[in-house]
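1st attempt posting a full record on here, be nice pls
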Amino acid sequence: MKEEKISIRTDLAIEAREMAGDIKTEMEGIKVIVQKLDDLKMHITKVQVLNEKGVNQIGKPIGNYVTIECEGIKKNSFDEKKDIVEAVSRELMKICNWRDKTVLVVGLGNQNVTPDSLGPKVVSRLIITRHLFQEFEGMTDEVLQKVSAIVPGVMGQTGMETVEIIKGIVDTIKPDFVIAIDALASRRTNRVNS
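the predicted structure (as tokens):
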């Protein structure tokens, strides 16, 4: 009987790096920075895939991947959620200069399937402002950013690949940044909802 090898799937760069070897050991083409915020019981891990060697090592495209883990979010307390929101906000500010930029937020997933509904739920809670800049030119507050959003659904609902929908929107409105929000697969149960 032929023995089949089981492949463990993950969407997270941190887990792809862990599967490639001890995360504390240096790996060519990969840079890992771990920040522990003990007072918040939070870990922020940044995995940078620097070049093609890094791509080949962990199977993720060149780029920066940030994973924020906080056990306290499972408590469902306002303070814990506030800490997570602030941490995500800080990390986004480090990546992008938002001043006077247009942002498209894409809520990926199927809003009718609970484990896949994170993206649509987040988009439903955003304050969308791009239209205000168009309708009330010169009257908008300087602290507002131009934010638009889309929940494109999934191929089973639309008959189109999500990337086709997003590309069409990006080609039309030409945002400076696209933030895609999606529920990701993890190989560790302790990372689920963390």
